[in-house]
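step: validate -> pass
step: tokenize input -> pass
step: predict -> running
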Amino acid sequence: MSEITLVRHGQANTAARDEASYDKLSPLGHQQAQWLGDHLRDCKDHYARVYCGTLTRHEETARAMGFDAGDIIRDPRLNEMEYFTLAQAMEAQHGLAIPKEREGFVAHLPKVFAAWEADRIDTPPESWRDFETRTKAALAEISEGEGPALVVTSGGLISMVMRQCLGLDTAATARIALAIMNTSLHRLHNIGGTYAPVLFNGVPHLEAPDRQYARTHL
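step: predict -> pass
step: emit ->
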């Protein structure tokens, strides 16, 4: 099993309330990704393979980090769940309003996760179990490759990976998702034949006092 480092994409369009509008990096998101790439090169971290989802914000993050387009392996199984689509369905079917600020999402996201997992959202873009299955399958395939791998993806998928590694319930998975910062690092090692997180939500490239403003969640 190869070491796997997961990276959440840079800050996206925080004003968006639908999937298409959200899927692009903000100027700060590009800067966060550039700083992360510089940090990894300064540390001489080497990745034999670089993966990302097929969403625009994933590819923009990987490119801003300094990886060439031809060296990036794109896999749609690494794409984020369609949170805004799920939220719109929750509003239409259960009257749960979509928040307009970060504090509102702290209460909103666990309710969406709970309803989604319990099959209480009619005709979602994919089921909770399908999201679990594709996440597990993608990571299993990546783990079989040679050398350490870097995976640029999204916070929801990273929280699902943590759920699978640590046996988290759905409420804890939602809390993990809310905690994940843009361009944060999450590293998995093989411990006793099973992946375990040895780094979670690391942002060493944002530790300097003049960069701490760039520690964003949305």
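step: describe -> The beta strands are 4-8, 49-52, 72-74, 149-153, 185-191, 194-202.
step: cleanup -> pass
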